Amino acid sequence: MFSPTSIPRKSHVRAAAKLRQARKDGSSYQGNREEAKNADLPYVTSLAKVVVGSETENSVMRMRVSTSSALGIMTASLPPSSSKIIVESLLTHLSSMSGVHRQVACLVVISWFKELRKIANDSDFSAAFENAKAIRIKLLELLACCDPALPTPSSHLPYTELTRTYAKMRGEIASFLKAAENAGISCKEVLLRGQLPETISAEAAVDIAMKVSADVTAAQSSDDSNKGGFEFLESLRQRFLATAGYLRLLQSNLHASVLATVAGAVVRMGELPVKLNPIIQPLMGAIKREQEELLQQLAAEALAETIAQCVGRKPSPNEKLTKNICILTLSDPGETPLATEANAKLINFDELITTKFSNSSQKSQGVSTAEERSRMEGAITRRGAEFVLRSLCDRFGTLLFEKLPRLWDCLTEALTLSSANGSEVKGSSCFTPAVEQHGEPQSLINNLQVVCSITPVLDEGLQPKILMLLPAIFGCVRHGHAAVRLSAAKCITALTKRWKEPIMAAVLENASLMLNDSSSVEARQGASLLLMLLVDRLGGELVAYAPLLIVPLLGCMSDTESDVRLSATHSFAILVPLLPLAKGMGPPSGLNSVLLSRSAEDAKFLEQLLDNSQVEDYKLPIEVKTSLRRYQQEGINWLAFLKRFKLHGILCDDMGLGKTLQASAIVASDIAEQIEKNKSGSELKLLPSLIICPSTLVGHWVFEIEKFLQTSILSPLQYIGSPQDRLQLQPQLKKHNLIVTSYDILRKDIEFLSKIVWNFCILDEGHIIRNSKSKITVAVKQLKAEHRLILSGTPIQNNVLELWSLFDFLMPGFLGTERQFQATFGKPILAAREAKCSAKEAEAGALAMEALHKQVMPFLLRRTKDEVLADLPPKILQDRYCDLSPLQLKLYEKFSVSQVKVEVSALVQECGTSHDAEGSISKSSTHVFQALQYLRKLCSHPLLVLNEIQLSESEMFQSETGGDEKINLHDLHHSPKLLALKEILEECNIGTHSAGEELNETGQHRVLIFAQLKSFLDIIEKDLFQTHMRSVAYLRLDGSVEPDKRFEIVKAFNSDPTIDVLLLTTHVGGLGLNLTTADTVIFVEHDWNPMRDLQAMDRAHRLGQKRVVNVHRLIMRGTLEEKVMSLQRFKISVANAVVNAENASLDKMDTTQLLDLFTMSGSGKSNIKQASRENEDDLLASAAGATGGKGLKAMLNGLEELWDQSQYSEEYNLDQFVARLGG
C-alpha cells in the first residue's frame, strides 16, 4: 500500500513525456528512448496522461484507496484509547519524505473520520478528534508548503519518489558543465551562483538551460573548426533541459495530488481553519487537473463537504465556489459548443450520428496535439465539476437549492429571461416559448449545459422544480442559433434519461407541434435534431414510444430543409426495427388523454404501414368517369395512406394496370379536400402538382386526365415546346394546378421549376432516375414537394442497387448515403453472387438482402396482371429463329478472324487484370461497344454496317453464282428478318390484298413493329412496305417525330382501324402508351435491358385489351442476339425475385455470362466454317480465362444505359471500325 510502483524500465512513456515538456518549453528534445532507462518515475501523472507505475496503475490506485478505506473504517470502530497506535503510525508516515506515504496516510484519515460521523455520537467524535489533534496540526503544516520543490517543512529535500530522477538530472548538468569547460565556455560560476550541481533544483536547471543557450550558440558561430563538439554540447543541454522540464512537471503534479488529499483529510476531521484558501486551492486544483479518477472523486467529496460546513459561515465562500463549479462544467468543448457565427446555422450531422455525444473526450483524428491536449484537459475538468455536483446532491438531497440558492441561479438566469414572454400550449403542462429575441446564445448554452450536467444526479424530490424549466428548454430547441438548439436537444435527452415518463410526454406533445410548424425552419430543425439524439442515446429504452415517435417523423422526411430530412430519416430508420417489439405493449404510462388517443390512432396507422391489406377504403371526394376495379381501389387506398402521413413510395404495378388513373385520382382528391377545407374556414395554400414523364407521354397524361377526371378539379397544362414557347407558358402556370412536362424539359428548366414548391411530384417511368449521377437525376432531386411518388412497372431494370437512387429522391437519407448503401448492401450482395464465394460471404449477402427487403417493403406496392386481371386475354410469346444469310455469315466470319477481334480480346484481358480499373474500362469501352454494335446491326441487315461504295470495291460481295454481277443489298433474302416479318404480316392477313380491295374488318389483326434502330425502320419501310407490300397502311413513331406530335400519332392509330401497322422504336414508343387496338407485337430487334422489351410488348397487352396478344420475337440463330435473349431471361428472373409480394431476398445479376457475346454457336447453316468459330472461341477464352471473366464484366457494367440510337451513332461510329475489318 505504501510502496510506490515503477514503470517497466524500457517503457517509452517517460521519453514521450520529456518530449512533450520540451516542446512546451520551446525546445526540441534530441535524446532517444534509451537515455531515459535509469530514471525513476514519480507517482502522479502528467497532463498528457503519462501514467506512473506498472501497466496496472489503475488497479494499484484502487488497491490503495480500498485498503486505506478499510483501515480507516477499522480505526473508527476502535475505542479512543486504542486509536493512539494508529495515530502514531499515521504521524510517522505524514512526516515521511515520500509523497505516497503521506497520501496513503491522508486516505486513512479521510475514511476514519467519514465513517466516524456515521456511527459515533458527538462525544465519541470529539474524543477521537482530540486524539488526532497532532495529525491535524501536521496536516496544516503540510498545507503551508506550497512550493513543489520544498514539500516538507524545514527541509530542502524533494519527495523520495523523485530522488533518482533528480540524480539523473544533476548528473546530466555536471556532464554539460564539464563539456562546456572543455569547449572553452566558462559558465559554471555565473550559472550556479554558488549552488552545487548535486543540490540544484529542477526550476534552477531549466533556468540554466535557457541562459546557457545563447553562450553555446555564440561559441559555435565563432569557432567553426569544432562544429561536432558544439553539436554534442547542444545535445547535452537539450537532454538535461528535457529531464528538468519533465521533473518539474511531475513534481508539481505529485505535490498537487498530495496536497489535495491532505486538504481532504483536514475537511473530514471537521474543524475548518480560519483561512480557507489553503484548503480550497488544492481541492479546486484537483477538480481541474487530477487525471486519476478516484483521487479526483475524493477531492470532489471533500470540496462538497467544505461547502456543507460553510453553509452557516459568514463570510461564506459558497456562492463563489458554486458559481466556479458551474463554470467548470463548461470546460469541455466537446460538450459545450461555442456560439460562433461559424456554427450559427450548420450542425455536423455525421459527427453527431457517429459519436452520439457519448464520448466527447475521445481523441479525434486529424486534430493537432495542442488541440487534443486542450480537449483532454477540458474533459477532465468537466468530470471533476460533475463529481462535485454529484457530491452536493448526495449531501443536501431535496434541500440542495435551498441551501445553495446560487446553484439554482446558475441553472435558471438565462433560461428564465428567455421564457419570460412564453405562451402556454393548450392541452399540455409544458410551454414552448419563442426565445429568438431573449438572451445571448452563449449564456443560454451555458445554462443548458449546467442543467445537463446536474440532471443525472439530482434527488428524485427535485423533479417538479426541474420540470419548471421545460418550457424554456423547449423554447431553446427552436432557437435561431444552431448551437443553442443542439445544447437544448442534449439537455432534454439528459432529462429523459433521468425521468423518462414525464419528459417523453412533453417531448411527444411539443416536438410534434414544432415538426408541423411550416412557418419556422428553426422549430423543425430543432425538433428533428432532438428526436435524433433521443433515438441515438436511448435506443431500446424507447420501444414503447416508437409508434408515437415514428408518426411525427414521417412528414419530415420530405421537408424542404435537407438537415431536417436527414435527421428525420436517420431516426425513422432506427425506429422501424423497434416496431415489432412495441406491438402488444400498449401505450406507455404517463400520457394524458390527448396522447392516449393519438397513441391508438398511431397504432392503427402502423398496422397499415406494415400490412398493405389493412389499409381502409378511401372514399374519393371526386367523380371518376369509369368503374374502378378492386385492385385500383386498393392502390388508391395505399396512395391516400401515403398522402395522409406524408410518406412517399413506388407504385410498381405491372404495365397496363392503370397507374396513370390511380395517380391522377389521388392528386385530384387531394385538391378537392383542400378546397373543401378552405370552405370550412381553413386557409390552406393550394400548391400545384408536377408530373414528369417521357416526352412521348406528356400528351397521353393530359388525355387520360381529361378522359377520366373532372377538369373543374384538375386543370392540366402541358409544359413543353421550344425555349421560347416555354418562356411564354411560365406565367400561365399559376392558372393551372397540374403541370405535365418531360424529363428533358425538366433538366433544361430546373432553375425555374425548382423555385416552385409542389404539392405532388410524380415521376412516371421513374426508373429513369436510377443512375444517381445523370443530369436528369440531379435535376429531379432539386425539386421541392410535399408528396413524392414514383410510377414504374419495372423499378429494377438491371440490379437491386438501383433502388438507392429512387429512394434518395423519395426519402433522402432513408437508405444512407450512396457509399453507406454500397458498403451495407451492395458489397455483401455482390460478393454473395460470385461463384467462388465462401459460406460466410453467402450468409452476409443473404442477410443484407433480407435487411434491404424489410426496409423498403412498406413503401412499394406491386400487383401483376396475372394476379388481378383474370379477364385479360393471354399473351402468347413466340420466338422465331432465323439463320444468317450467306452475306451476313461472311461478314460475321470476317469479324471472327480479324485483327479487331484480337484487339478486343486483349482489351478484355487488360481490363480484368489492370490495377487501374477505371482507366482500363475507359480506354476499352469504345472498342468493345463498337464490336457489339457492329454484330448487333449485322444481325438485322447488312446495309446497317456497309454502304454501296464499300460493296463495289470488295470481291466478297459478288453474286453467289460467281459472275461479275453485283448483288442488290435491298433484296429481302439478304435479311432473313425481313422475310420472316413479311411472313408474319401475311399470316395476319396484312398486305395480301390489292390496294383497292375492300377489307373485311372481322378478325383483322393490327400490328406493332418494334425496332431498336431508326435506320432499320427505314429499311422496313423502303424495302418491304414500299416495294413488296404496298397495300399496307402504316404509321411511324420514332425519335424524328416532335414530342408534342407523338401522341397525335397514337390517337390516330387507335381511332382508325384501317391502319394496319405502327412502326416504333423501343426507346420512343415502348413506354406508357396505350395501344390496345393492336393485338400483334413483333420485335425485329431486342434491347439489352429486358424491361424495355417488356414495357414495349405491354403497350398492347394491358387493361382494355379484348383479344389474345401474340408477341413475335425475331432472333438470329447462333449469334449475338440469341445470347442477348438468354441474358434477358436472367435479368427478368432477378427482377421477379425482388419486386413482388412474396419477395424474400434480393439479388444482383452476374454478367459473367456475357463473356461469350462475340462467339457464334448453334446449328444449321451457321455450322459452316465451324473451325473459324472455334478459333474465335479460343481467342475469347484466352482473354477471359485468367480473370474469370471480370474484365469484360467490368466493361459491360454500364451496358444497360446505352439504349439510345443517337448515343451509338455519335460515340461508337462504325465507319472506321468497318474499314479496319478489311485491313
TrEMBL record:
It comes from the Eukaryota. One of its GO terms (cellular component) is nucleus. Keywords: ATP-binding, Chloroplast, DNA-binding, Helicase, Hydrolase, Nucleotide-binding, Nucleus, Plastid, Repeat. It is found in: Nucleus. Residues 1-35 are annotated as: Disordered. Residues 22-35 have a biased composition (Basic and acidic residues). It comes from Ceratopteris richardii. Pfam families: DUF3535 (PF12054), Helicase_C (PF00271), SNF2-rel_dom (PF00176). Coiled coil: none annotated. Residues 640-813 form the Helicase ATP-binding domain. This is TATA-binding protein-associated factor BTAF1. Residues 980-1150 form the Helicase C-terminal domain. Residues 9-21 have a biased composition (Basic residues). One of its GO terms (molecular function) is TBP-class protein binding. InterPro entries: ARM-like (IPR011989), ARM-type_fold (IPR016024), Helicase_ATP-bd (IPR014001), Helicase_C-like (IPR001650), Mot1 (IPR044972), Mot1_ATP-bd (IPR044078), Mot1_central_dom (IPR022707), P-loop_NTPase (IPR027417).
